[in-house]
Amino acid sequence: MSASQPVPPEVVQQLAEYFSVLGEPMRLRILNLLRDGEKCVQDLVEATETSQANVSKHLKVMVQAGIVSRRTEGTQAYYRVEDELIFELCGLVCDRLARRIEQQARKFRAFSFLGKR
Fold first, then answer.
1. Which residue has the higher pLDDT, 40 or 5?
2. Which of 4, 48, 62, 81 has the fewest Cβ atoms surrounding its Cβ within 10 A?
3. Where are the domains of the chain?
């Protein structure tokens, strides 16, 4: 689809929903914890220092978005990243943010009230 053609509203809606999943800091923290592999809910609760209800709520959203998958073993639920592309996407965003911060830092360093005497 070329840039000159309008994007169908349902495509825009799905894209916005996918990005909204990543717009929650706790979900990014959970994804980072799952980077090294599958973890049970209790491990995620302990690592995030939040409630099981909170972790489960965020995991449910990510499962519905297809970002993570869930399996059960006995009474335990285990989660893993289903879409590894998520880490590439986060890496691109982090690199962009780091460049912006570095540019801002250079501007602050160049500006000085002290001046040369």
1. 40
2. 4
3. 9-83
Residue with tokens 């040369």: 116
Residue entry with tokens 């209800």: 53
Looking at every residue in the chain, the average pLDDT score rounds to 90
- Alpha-carbon distance of 102 to 21, in angstroms, equals 27
> Which residues, at least 6 apart from 68, have a Cβ–Cβ distance to it below 8 Å?
31, 34, 59, 62, 79, 80, 81, 82
Residue of 20, 68, 18 whose CA lies nearest to 44: 68
Least confident of 28-32, 52-56, 82-86: 82-86
Question: How far apart are alpha carbons 3 and 94 in whole angstroms?
Answer: 26
* Rounded Cα gap, residues 15 and 78, in angstroms: 27
Residue 61: both structure tokens together = 């959203």
Enter the pTM of the model: 0.80
In CATH terms, the fold of domain 9-83 is Arc Repressor Mutant, subunit A (1.10.10)
DSSP secondary structure string for all residues of 33-49:
HHTTS-EEHHHHHHHHT
